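Researcher: I'd like a structural prediction for the single chain below. Treat it as a standalone chain; there are no partners to consider.
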Amino acid sequence: MALSFGTTLAGIGVIVAGTEIEGQNAQIALVGTGVALVTVGPWVGRRYGNAVTSPWRNVRLVGLASTAVGLAILPGLCFDEYEGTEAGCTVGAVLSGLGSIVWGVGTLAELLTTAVDVRAAQASRVTPTVGPVPGGAMLGISGLF
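Model: Treating it as a single chain, here is the predicted structure.
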């Protein structure tokens, strides 16, 4: 839990720092780094605990993709120098807004279910074991139950 929450909160801190700093290149770099940290943050604790899958992962990815597509089409659909329209601007804004909401809800849900999923992944584990023994080799199965 500490890894998941810590990485996610660090990402939020980097995003906030990126919005406060002077210089467009530095802002883009910090906000991009913060978004990357927030995106992988919930997964870090799961991976540490060997719970590599989550039902919320796909929800988060769909939300992130929707946000990215909405933000990518906004300049072409909104701004006058690109001859944008009001309807097109609304499509980009709604797509990025809904994507952000879906991504945020998925991230929060994944953070809150991390401990339960990690405990379930660690509850039982079967591992093949190979090793030398006097006079030969050993092949076996060891487990944690």
